[in-house]
Amino acid sequence: LEQFNPNEYGHEGQLSTNLDLWSFGVILTEMMNGRPVFGRRDNRTTLEQIMNTILKSPLPPPPVLRMKKPYSDMLRKCLVRQAGDRVQSAGDLLALLEPHLQWPRPTGTFQPKLSPPQPIIEPAPTTTEQLEPRRPKIVIRPARLVQSEVGSDSDPAQPAATDRPVRPKIIIPAHPKEKAPKRPAGSNTKMLLLILLLLLLLGAAGFIGSKFWLN
Prior knowledge:
It is a single chain. The chain is mostly helical. The chain has a domain at 6-100: Transferase(Phosphotransferase) domain 1 (Transferase(Phosphotransferase), domain 1, Orthogonal Bundle). 35% of the residues lie in helices and 5% in strands. It has helices at residues 19-33, 47-56, 69-78, 90-97, 128-131, 187-214; strands at 139-140, 145-147, 163-165, 170-171. The chain has a two-stranded antiparallel sheet. 7% of the residues are buried.
């Protein structure tokens, strides 16, 4: 009910075009103060008492502590019972607020912070020797000419010694055989002594056990 304009209760006998500005001021004041503008009421409060409170009780001060002066002055001009002294239109209310809606903005250009370039790690070079398994080397001896056994120097009837090519021999070197590691000298002797010591211990244990059993 507090949001109704006093003109609607017949205080001045006529309605005006700025009825909603009164309601706007009441709602905004309640939001800033956190309590009703004209105090609390309960179920026993009659409509006549509410109307008398709205029409005759003094208006509360605007929430100066929570609002800056331009906005508190705007609320004060909205909460006026006489329609002629109240803000006439929403355009007039916006004109009061427009000079105070400007605020300083940062100037200058924004330069993003770039991270330093990361080093490029190149892969280790690979050779064909690392990729392919090792193969035995093949040694090819060049061909040589040998004298044929056909004919001889003393027989002129036979043709001179003829030369024939010899096939090259392919020699593949054999891999060296891996030799078994030699046992250190004296290892066999130590093994025999250890076996004899175990036999002696077993014999002594058997002898002591038999004596204890017979007694």
